[in-house]
Fold Putative spermidine/putrescine transport system permease protein.
Amino acid sequence: MVKDTRLSTKLWAAANWTLIGFFILNLFAMIATVVTSSFSTRWLGTWLPAGWTTRWYSAAWSEFQLHDVLLVTFQIVFLVVALSGLIGVPAAYALARRDFPGKKLVMLLFLLPLLVPPITFGIPLATVLYQTGFAGSMSGVVLANLVPTV
């Protein structure tokens, strides 16, 4: 393949990379501003922090009880991953190596949550979970998270 060495192509490539670099620079600048402000003693009024503190993080940790939230989150993650593996690995083995009646239907049912936007099955799923009483329980959260993973 012949490489295009025209000046216009090189200028276009340079402009393209300059624009990409400018975008990335601005993205990192915004993230750095938020991170810097999160450790500042005052949130507003100065460009650079007058002092440094972790008070905001400890206040958020205690006020929102993040220890309990993280504990429940990791429990749900472990259960969903374990159940997805227990259901998904045998199903994948059977679908890959066996022929049986209804195989295409089973494959469609497994792929359906990936093809359908989450909002279209999330609201009916939430309705079913509320009607059955699972909505406020750990098992309901695990079931709701199993739908897109399995």
About this structure: Residues 66-149 form one domain. Helices lie at 7-38, 55-63, 66-97, 103-115, 118-132, 138-149.
